[in-house]
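User: Could you walk me through two proteins back to back? I'd like the raw sequence and the structure tokens for each, with a short line separating them so I can tell where one ends and the next begins.

Assistant: Of course. Protein one, sequence then structure:
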Amino acid sequence: MRLPWPRTLFARLMLIWLIGIVTILATSFALFVGERSRSDRSALFEGIAREISASMDVLDHLAANERGPWIEALGGRRLRFSLDARPPENASPVSEHFPLVEALRRAQPDRKITLYSQQPKPGGPSLHHLRLIAILTLSDGTPVSVRLPMPPLLGIRELPSPERILAALAAFVLGLTLLTWFAVRVATRPLSRLAQAANALGEDPNRPALATTGPTEVALAATAFNQMQTRIREHVAERTRILAAISHDLQTPITRLRLRAEEISDPALRTRVQSDLDAMQALAREGLDYARSLDATAPLQAVDLTALVDALCQDAQDMGWNVTRQGATHTPCRAQLVALRRVLWNLIENGIKFGERVEVSLRESDDAIHIDVRDHGPGIAPDELERVFEPFYRTEYSRNRETGGTGLGLAIARNLLRAQGGDVTLENAADGGLIAHARLRRNSDTH
């Protein structure tokens, strides 16, 4: 089964660093332990070989009848000499390449040397604790056996217990993880800021430029991002100017056509032509409003949202619309008054077109003020909840003369809200109808 690969750069760098460092640590530890053990044993066996060699030289200079009393005196803490040269029970010869054999060969090249290992008896020490017996021959041919005690008594240091090794490794990995987390976070934080700036760019092309500080690669990426933001801002401004110019210049020929339509003698034809001119003029007017919404730079001011919604509800009721308010706000919000009025009126008008009855609900949260405009119409398909904010897009249900519009109302509302730090989304109500969720930041201050 293929293991899942982390999706974030932060997690991938953490994983790569930890696996690499832990692998290097484990390899280094294994090599260190092996080399340390080999070095310790080599030094130990060299010392034992020199001690045995010195003792054998002493015995060589003694008469045969004097060697017995000296055997006990020559034996030290680690060595036991004996003139008994019989091979021990359960013993087997040790390879000539054993470190102690090689050390004895170097110290006593002219002597006959045989090294045996004696297995422990059943129920005795573990197989790790073997006894070593060396049999050497004096210059007169007399064999001498040298019994070495178990490795712990020889001074060979054993490895720490597995629990201590695991605890030390765990502590090291924990410290390494914290250090890696800090290093990777420092390295990836500029990328996170760049991603946040890219997300915010879609809502506000006029946002402040990114700081071009930090490592060279990050500074270059921030500089390129700022240049892209400048070009996007210029393209949006150019498109806005073109759209505004076209929408404005269309007013004059439409007015001339309206005057000439009055000269048409056929009343039915004159009515149809005037209806088409009204639609063209509404489209030009909406296009001009949309262009202006892309460049909403009016100053922010304190707005009593409850009073504003009450005024809009009254205006709608004067037109025969069924519009009511629910809830209230207790603190003024900072917003662009004219733009906010246009947003709410567009949402109310859109709800009346498709739902006939509209409720406007106000509520506050810790960081935002929420305005919900709900109608009781058929709602829209889930895949169109976001597409209806595209300029000139209309649902299939709205493509008729009674309910159809220009397809710019919701696009204008979103542009005007985003220009003052807010946003608007749509949601189908569980019991029917459509809800427009408008949101404004409590301390909106984008300009």
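----
Protein two, same layout:
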Amino acid sequence: MNKITQLFNIKYPIIQGGMIWNSGCKLASAVSNAGGLGLIGAGSMYPEVLREHIQKCKKATDKPFGVNIPMLYPNIEEIMNIVIEEGVKIVFTSAGNPKTWTSFLKEKGITVVHVVSSSVFALKAQDAGVDAIVAEGFEAGGHNGRDETTTLTLIPMVKEKIQIPIIAAGGIATGRGMLAAMVLGADGVQVGSRFAASLESSSHDNFKQKIVEVKEGDTQLTLKELAPVRLIKNKFYNDIQELYEKAPSKEDLVQLLGRARAKKGMFEGDLDEGELEIGQIAGLIHEILPVNQIVQEMLADFEAACQEKAKFEF
């Protein structure tokens, strides 16, 4: 048992990222049943839809699962109350101040984890009383840190500063990546992109197919003036770049982004006009697989890498 398997009472220290438009009850329950920790992504759900997914997840698995809640959510109080009413035991928070909700959730007996992109925010999360943090490097898909700190440098810098368990995220889709993160000081890993390209992901088949076609260099971090986001270079991305050439105001960018771009791309499968959020590691993802197979392949790869490590002794 390591700190993360103990904290969540799971078999393997593999956490599924609570990605919007990908992380419904089907994906979360499949990851939990495979021995990891599945997360329902509340960021793309109306409150009652979230309740429905929590209830279905409870029926689909008897293993621990959690809910990922971006704190920018407009219905945040309603969301938190649903989580408590439905007896959710694990909450991952992101995109906001961890002090706002941590003590409220902890008083209800909930394990709280906060997602950070720097050691400064990691310290704030620890001070707020969270049980663990996710340290996410800028290789990750979707919304991201402004500092562009890579996972390779972020994990040891966070490890130097905090005492609570660390979950590494950003650029991890293989067992070798998992071992590398743990050697750097992580106690477990959070995996997003690899699970987005799973049979159980709730995203559109067009998006899943696009993920496996992505090559090195096909994603980019952009829209820093609003909230930095890593996405696949498509027509929408090119439209952003054209607008940047005209020195746009923040309002111009907001107007171009419009509403529901991520839903259009990832959930409805519009590969031209949609926002296709995925991490740099997509260049290593070559097929859409069932969750159980993904987890087993990661574990086999982890074991093989551990055995190979002996070759590097001097």
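The mean pLDDT is 96.

Let me know if you want the two compared in more detail.
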